[in-house]
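User: Before I run my own analysis I want an independent prediction to cross-check against. Here's the chain; please return only the structure tokens and, at the end, one sentence I can use as a sanity check.
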Amino acid sequence: MKKPYPILILDDDEAILKALLETLKLEGYVCQGTTHAKEALELLPQKTFAVVLSDQRMAELNGTYFLQQVKEIQPKCSRILITGVLTSEMFLEAINKAEVFRCLAKPWMREHLIQTIKEAYSAFEIKLAYEEAHQALLETNQRLIDENIQLRRHQ
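Assistant: Structure tokens:
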């Protein structure tokens, strides 16, 4: 990968946000965090995020709704929902509406969090690589079409 894409973290609990940021920064990730959904939504059009991690229960809005907005703005980024209370209904809604990559329970196990982030980041990189390969294939196909037209004209 040419440059490290950041991870965006949204949690309205300042202590949890700091813990997540410190954990991931220690693993070498570039992270940006906020306690306000509005601020997080304003960041999305400004830069490409590899992973967006959001708490479910927040004062401004719920994490599933926020991650739905993320999906619309940045469909390639991996979305992760983190919550203290994970119900089957919440899980299904997160998958069906926000197409989350994973749901994590609070409190999280550090190793599990790090492994989940690694897998989510890798999934993002794969999507980017696929898009680049697809674009290169389209350009090659167009070049071959153009060359074929030129050859037919010279016959």
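Sanity check: The chain has five helices and five strands.
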